[in-house]
Amino acid sequence: MEKEISQAVIRRLPRYYRYLGDLLHAGVERISSNELSVKMHVTASQIRQDLNNFGGFGQQGYGYNVPYLYEEIGKILGLNHRHNVIVIGVGNLGHAIANYISFERLSFTMIGAFDVNPELKGKKLGNVEVQLVDEIPEFLKTHDVDLAALTLPKESAEAVTQKLIANGVKAFWNFAHVDLDVPEGIVVQNVHLSDSLMQLSYNINQLKD
Amino acid sequence: MEKEISQAVIRRLPRYYRYLGDLLHAGVERISSNELSVKMHVTASQIRQDLNNFGGFGQQGYGYNVPYLYEEIGKILGLNHRHNVIVIGVGNLGHAIANYISFERLSFTMIGAFDVNPELKGKKLGNVEVQLVDEIPEFLKTHDVDLAALTLPKESAEAVTQKLIANGVKAFWNFAHVDLDVPEGIVVQNVHLSDSLMQLSYNINQLKD
């Protein structure tokens, strides 16, 4: 667990977690890397290699114990810790993300929601009352926030991010269409919908050729 | 333009397009690969290599002509074609995506929206009236649809996708937390929010060590 794991492996881990969750849900107790390989459309050797990064988990002739592997990957992904989330930007996407966070029940709890629009103040987003972006520093004095979901327009994303960092927030789930400029030690996970849509557009175009 | 471009390059193109759009918006007429490199935090040689895949565009001693390069990358990405989109699943995420598509004005037009919930029938999503998923085959007889945005729960995503494919839809922007099983010649672009959130969770966990 001490050695450095490549981000390529980390990117694949949630997919293992997702498939193992489905298997668990279906009551499957154990699975071989070959069976998992067929399900996931990746090679069995890729699966073995990926999981060997974390010390294996598989047993020769038995395969993987599904509940155990599911739990272990969950731990590696940090899903055994509770994460407090604030949502910045209470538009459609903010609603979707708030709803998503509470629905998925991974280990994320929305404890605050903020917008610049005074008309939204006091309105409910899930279980929390929307506050104004100006109230963030005060809020952060009394609440531990593990990550901020940025569902606000790109024009204001950079300034809000700097304010959040100055007040101790270290991780961002960024939906704004901008690459945030952050110092060392700050984590940003981008979901750039426009980039994704353009990549799709390119591939649609290739179909036509 | 005839040679095969790697998906890694294609994944980076939207980011170039985004930065060039910002430059254009700011009235910048030309930029060197070095200047662009500083802005984008990638090496100048990476930029030159990427753009050389499409025949260059740069001129020694001049750099890149911003409006020209913006337009050319737009063409490569297929953004000069209009794409008709239908949205399947009119929850919060469906609303967010519908709003996003019309707001971004790339080259995408939402021409239909569908849900399984009879109570939503006839309600407006943007400019279109929500229809029932059962009405999709009839709709597809009279409308050209370039892509379907799947913003529905994973339990129904697979069945709806098969129905759409059987009725001629060839491209999917998939937000359901499932890897769709599609035949050759069908394009799927996944936005797996749960995978993204888990990757963020892992990286938050690493911060604490």
Concise summary:
The structure is a homodimer of 209-residue chains. Chain A is of the alpha/beta class and 209 residues long.
Number-wise, the strands of chain A total 9
Could you tell me the radius of gyration of chain A in angstroms? 20 Å
Main sheet characteristics of chain A: 7 strands, mixed
The third-level CATH topology of the largest domain in chain A is: Rossmann fold
Helical percentage of chain A: 40-55%
Global geometry of chain A: globular
Write the layout of secondary structure elements.
The structure is a homodimer of 209-residue chains.
Chain A lengths: L6 H19 L4 E2 L1 H8 L3 H9 L11 E2 H11 L6 E6 L3 H13 L3 E8 L8 E2 L2 E5 L3 H7 L4 E4 L3 H13 L4 E4 L12 E4 L2 H16 L1
Parallel strand pairs in A: 3-4, 3-7, 4-6, 7-8, 8-9
Antiparallel strand pairs in A: 1-2, 5-6
